[in-house]
Amino acid sequence: MSALSKTPKIVLTGDRPTGPLHLGHYVGSLKNRLRLQDTHRQYVLVADVQALTDNADAPNRIARNVVEVALDYLAVGIDPAKTTICVQSCLPALAELTMLYLNYVSVARLERNPTVKEEIRQRGFERDVPAGFACYPAAQAADITAFRATLVPVGEDQLPMIEQTNEIVRRINRLAATDVLVEAMALVPPIGRLPGTDGRAKMSKSLGNAISFSATADEIRAAVRRMYTDPNHLRACDPGMVEGNVVFTYLDAFDDDSDGLAELKAAYCRGGVGDAAVKRRLADILEAFIAPIRARRRHLANDRSYVYEVLRAGTEAADMVTAATLGTVKAGLGLFSLQPIAGCRVA
Ligand code: TRP
Fold first, then answer.
1. Contact 276, 224 (CB under 8 A)
2. Residue range 76-123, pLDDT digits in tens
3. Of the residues 161, 188, 206, which should be mutated to test ligand 1's pocket, given the most ligand atoms within 8 Å of the CB?
4. CA–CA dist 198, 70 (Å, integer)
5. 7 pLDDT exceeds 70?
6. Which residue CA neighbors atom 8 of ligand 1 most closely?
7. Of all protein residues, whose CA lies closest to atom 2 belonging to ligand 1?
8. Which CATH superfamily is domain 217-300 in?
9. Ligand 1 pocket, mutate which of 29, 33, 43, 45 (most atoms under 8 A from CB)
10. Superfamily (CATH) of domain 3-194+303-333
């Protein structure tokens, strides 16, 4: 067996519980997680502390959304027997690692992170960026490294976070003169990011262009009806454009009949296929996809004690793992310890 194949493949990813999860989360990451939970040790983190960095005024809403996001996970098929689901604010080692890591990243480097920059612009923080927000890439590095994750299934907007995480990993390892931390790799879906139903680059509840897992059949149909197609495709007989056509982007993500879809695209480009027919196909596919998720979600929502038990057990398991990593990092750096043996440098 090669050294590489012996490296345990650990998967960690997280979501900010700022609202219900939606199809954008599914395409960007959940689909990969469903696959990986069968082959990898997988942790999923409900990142409520990170959610607070841009929702400081609404801690109660964040707390309620922790349960909603957990319901989404379970409904979509994240299986707690295979995946450890845990809550960030209940894992003190993550906060401690964040404090340590903040010494290994400069303010200028944090400010250069393109995702953070873009988010600051979107949120209109201007000069009033909460310090927690500016520093969250270091906290995300703590999340990723604490679980010793080697694989992080995320949307492509998260690539700068992984890059910054690995920079911190290398600095700590160099200082400890041994590999106390492991570098991680992002796993980005080939399809990239699912646009919002309005065609904007990002699907988000706050932009009002999302389809959530609890969307009703009517809501799905209405959202699809409003989607942009090709503005020059006015009559069914006109030739249409598939590229940049939101309805086809969604079909690419959710239509499993690739031959049928290829035929439909060809016919649409030639002319003779109306937008209404393409939208009907998409609405049917999305409804068939969401209906069982919606039903499971409704059923689980009546059993909150089960959801809490999943979170409690998952967080307890995660606490052990993350505390162990914190211990290794502190020992590796040679920080003071009240237990002289454990405090010895491991290098
Ligand atoms: N920043 C991620 C997002 O906005 C959420 C997140 C928090 C995360 N901690 C993580 C993602 C750790 C991957 C790994 O979607």
1. no
2. 999 999 999 999 999 999 999 999 999 999 999 999 999 999 999 988
3. 161
4. 27
5. no
6. 14
7. 15
8. Tyrosyl-Transfer RNA Synthetase (1.10.240.10)
9. 45
10. HUPs (3.40.50.620)
